[in-house]
Description:
Helix content: 40-55%
Strand order of the largest sheet: 8-11-12-13-14-15
Radius of gyration: 23 Å
Low-confidence stretches: none
Number of strands: 18
Amino acid sequence: MLLIYPPAAKPCEPPAGIAKLSGALAHYGIRHRVLDANIGGLSFFLHQPQVRFDTWTNRAFRNLTRNLRALKNRQTYSTIARYKRAVTDVNRVVWASSSEGNETPGLANYQHKKLSPLRSADLLYAAEHPENNIYYPYFSRRLTEIIEQEQPKFVGFSLNYLSQALCTFAMTGFLKREAPKTKIILGGGLVTSWMRNGRPENLFQGLVEHFVSGPGEYDLLAMHGISRSERKHFTPEYDLLLSDDYLAPQNILPYSGSSGCYWNRCSFCPEKAEQNPFSAVPAKEGRKDLQILTAKTKAALIHMLDSSMTTGFMKELINNAPGVPWYGFARVSRELADHDFCMGLKQSGCVMLKLGIESGDQGVLDALHKGIDLSTASNALKMLKKSGIATYVYLIFGTPAETESSAQKTLAFTVKHNESIDFLNLAIFNMPVCGAAASGLRTKGFSEGDLSLYTDFHHPDGWDRKRVRLFLDRTFKTHPAVSSILMNDPPVFTSNHAPFFVMNRERAKQF
């Protein structure tokens, strides 16, 4: 079996989903290979001949080696300006590799001017014409090598993001052409969303043999004759994914302590709309995993991938620290407003928490069934700041319950707590196509694609996407207290690289 992580996604850490599948297969001694084609494809672009363009592009090519070294140098993460220059210049080199065609690659993205990952017909076209894909020179050679060496019966793709879809289907089409007896498996976050939103599997009949919704280890094991009823916890296996090519100053260990969300009530959330069940690794087993994996991978930072870390798991880390810094998503709760709890998190190695506060209007939060109150959020931000834990705050604008007045309250809340907020993620609301939030609203097509996961809607107060965008650009982002926070955001890598800035800041205070 061959497991593939396709282009294009953030190339700073190994793919956790494939590591989890690899761990399950290794547990039963099932022979398999893994291929991070995302980092492989990036390396391919970065070694292309220099293309003569404008002054910026020429400079980016000229300084490529130095910029790549900078992104792997901890000291670069002490100066946001130097970091931004390195990221934007490396991204420019990737872009320049295909600036004259219909495809636009990037460090963490891939777009096509004519084909859309939201249209099944376009995905099929990509499969029928794999040679048109800019990654073809890379994956045609690499896949041919692996096919000749291993002759895999199954090839599974971990398809999580829209930016990976067209490349995934191009690689699938190539495999069907060169190894027609190979059975193709599609799984991952995006595939799960397609299936949970009622997209028929027969759209890709003859191309894909198996679709996997949700965690895929038991489906893969069943294909090898192992009963689905034999449910076990498998420690992820990263041995086949270790690489010096990831763009980070130190090794990052991504780890999921759970799938789904334990709250699962927010009316705007795709987790609820898609009815993704919550399942958690027992806290003690998760902690043991982290201890084993940090030693094996020599990781210097743990990235917790949970939609929201449970309080129980955080308490386990407080009582048994993993030994290296860590960060992840957490729900605003009374515990995060408690001094002893936050100090315990800090001592366990927590350097940053990502918090989905969403709105500064309590009425909006209640209408969205967010389950938090702003007084608790306020106290949590202050306590985390006091404890030395950075915060990456997520806000959503344009929900059905929000008005411009509500958005102004969110601005006021952000300004009031600007000293306790280190980073901001601002998003315009996307209505899940199968979500209950659309009930009673007039909806309209978000895109022409038959695979779109979202729908547009007529806002009851006229607070549409255009007005929301203007408010963000002209009012919210321009406020001095907000703009100073936004200046800290690492471009392209965002929260994945933010902890390194936090850790450097802490080191500077010690000297």
